[in-house]
Amino acid sequence: MSSVAGAVLVALDGTVLTVAQPSLQRSLDASFAQAQWTSTAYLVTVASLLVFAGRLGDRYGQRRLFALGMLGFGVASAGIGIAPGIGWVIGLRAAQGVFGALLQPATLGMLRAAYPPDRLAAPLAVRTSAIGLAAAVGPLAGGALVGWLGWRAVFFLSALPAPVFGLAALRGLDRATPDPHPSGSGSGSSSHPSEAGASPHVSGADSSPHPSGSGSGSSSHPSEAGASRPALDLPGALLLAVTLACLVHTLVALPASGAATAAGLGAAALTGAAFLWHERRTASPLLPPGVIGSPVVGAALAVLVAASASLFGTVFTLTYVLQRRLGLDPFHSALRSLPLALLMVLSAPLCPVLLRRFGARWTTGAATAVLALGVLTLSRSTTALALGCGFALLGAGFGTVMVAATQVVVRRAEVAAAGVAGGLQQTALNVGPVVGVATATALAGAGAGAGTTLLVLAAVAAVAVPAARALPGRGVASITQTPDERVSPGVPARR
Fold first, then answer.
1. Residue 43, Cβ neighbours under 10 Å: how many?
2. Mean pLDDT, residues 236-257
3. How far is CA 108 from CA 120, 210, 300, 332, 420, in A?
4. How far is CA 239 from CA 41, 323, 478, in A?
5. Is there a contact between 109 and 59 (Cβ–Cβ < 8 Å)?
6. What is the dihedral of CA 345, 11, 452, 266, to 10 degrees?
7. pLDDT (0 to 100) of residue 15
8. What is the pLDDT of residues 334-388, one digit of tens each?
9. What is the CA radius of gyration of the chain?
10. H helices then E strands: how many in the chain?
């Protein structure tokens, strides 16, 4: 429940801001650039901190980081709702990005700690369906609130429930007790937390793993068990944060001058190279070799970046098509795109069935192809029926890719690195949309029409189809069949 709630609040916040931005700009007498910075400040902050925040969760407990992130996110949202000027809004959005970075990897880290690897797909499907529902409700609720109460009202959508979930997570920390019979320790207990008599969101959710082979009665948190906590690698975290901040800011700022774009991308390349050099030489890297060194994880992250770039670039382009070319207002534009969210909600629960039957390789590859087909359909659509079919294909493809690729990334990580794995997945899903919108913006600035832009975005998704070939096939259904998958359901592998 906590994992789903955190993911939904972040998704809802992003969708309602898009609707509220024009009203916010008029109310605060802000320039267009200042209004854009209400999004940019959040994007740059959250993207640059996700992986480090995931490592903090691995070190201090995912539930603890989740609680801190939710409480801070709610307070920042309330602050934006009463902000006296645009400068306050931009600063508080940056603060909101910090707390969003704390809670997002934790939502996946808690799932990885609570469920054995071969049962991750089902809870991830629930989480993805909830995000799809938020994407459907957000624009409609945001539009209604802005029209009725003004732009400030939309920020109280998260200001009210976020502290509730944050306090509930803190109470869960107080109630959490070590499992006296860890599954896989020889006690004969079942491998699933709920079958062992523990709540899957209390026992283990705030924990780094038991050392491999630990006996019954050992504590579930490193500090309690006497095990060493993961190192933080502050130099690596700083280099990665600067790299991602430069990259995201440069892409968001497009179209900018050629010199500014070159400087931003050059800075990202230099700090990125320095980060890789540092990671190869440090004794305790920020990115564990078992996660970042895996071709499977790399392929899954590449698919997530490409799929989210294609999806969000397409939605960005079609917003202008629907409102400017077809003359629809924001509310009716949101209704036309509703099949996207609905099919995302419906397709996610089917993904675990497809994964069991066909494996991650074929499921992800086929879903990415469906996403590309949806973009192609939309590139030639003007009628309501054709647009609905195209949006439905987008939702079905992306919902399936989200579950399939995410479970590959998260299940490959040990519980002790679950936060980092969650941070990488969330980074991919934050960088991808920025790349997609930047691509659409650059093509529009070069004079390309909407049809040409959508063809390019379809090609972006299609390029990811071959990358899916690196993912596990149908034969890798058990968590003991490959060296990377050789992890006991109840006892994580020794680091």
1. 22
2. 87
3. 10, 19, 15, 34, 10
4. 19, 41, 37
5. no
6. -140
7. 75
8. 788 889 989 998 999 999 999 999 999 999 999 999 999 999 999 988 788 999 9
9. 22
10. 17, 0
